[in-house]
Design goal:
With about 190 residues, this protein is an alpha+beta fold. It has helices at about 1-15, 90, 110-120, 140, 160-175, 180-185, and strands at about 20-25, 35-40, 50-55, 60-70, 80-90, 105, 135, 150. About 30% of the residues lie in helices and about 25% in strands. It is globular.
């Protein structure tokens, strides 16, 4: 019985050795929504990461980016780290014999990054002031004013937070991440 327990503990330790802990990094802002990204450590015992993210704006849209050799301690931006869970070591291991030297790139170097590229980066989700995304307005329909309030269609905002949630759900569906990551994202600060 003691031997069986020791074997279980040893197996759990071996399983954890074959994993890398990934984190959500939240850059706080008083005026705007916080920027979210995922940090994947270069090795299981390193302090440098690859930051997996989308960058851009609501007006212009977003693009995928892998920021390699990232040290969150070296940033001057206010941020908080949240553990999302562990992923298999082989999913985060460089697939190429020669590592990609570029610091900021859109070239995937491992399975996690390949999966990130399958999650579409959000396009523009803000309307301009001259948008005609309004219905039942006399100005646009050239009909007499009827004292009805214009029906403005709601904006479906898709930003970095939306993308990180979609990426995490994709990792969960693929079996790379536990469902507890969804709980972490649901409680992460938005600002």
């Amino acid at each position: 019985s003691r031997s069986a327990f020791s074997n279980i503990i040893a197996q759990q330790a071996a399983n954890m050795a074959d994993k890398r802990s990934i984190q959500l990094i939240v850059y706080h802002s008083r005026l705007f929504k916080a920027h979210w990204a995922i940090l994947v450590p270069h090795t299981s015992e390193t302090a440098t990461f690859t930051k997996v993210q989308v960058t851009g704006s609501l007006a212009q849209g977003f693009a995928h980016e892998f920021q390699r050799n990232y040290d969150p301690k070296a940033t001057g931006r206010a941020h908080t780290l949240y553990a999302l869970g562990s992923v298999p070591e082989d999913a985060a291991t460089n697939l190429f014999a020669t590592p990609i030297d570029e610091t900021n790139t859109t070239t995937a170097s491992n399975r996690l990054e390949q999966i990130a590229l399958t999650v579409p980066a959000p396009g523009p989700s803000l309307r301009s002031a001259g948008s005609t995304n309004v219905s039942n307005v006399a100005l646009y329909t050239m009909q007499p004013y009827t004292h009805r309030t214009p029906q403005i269609k709601p904006i479906d905002v898709k930003d970095c937070q939306y993308w990180v949630r979609q990426y995490a759900e994709t990792l969960i569906s693929a079996g790379f991440l536990d469902t507890k990551a969804s709980e972490v994202l649901a409680t992460a600060p938005l600002h």
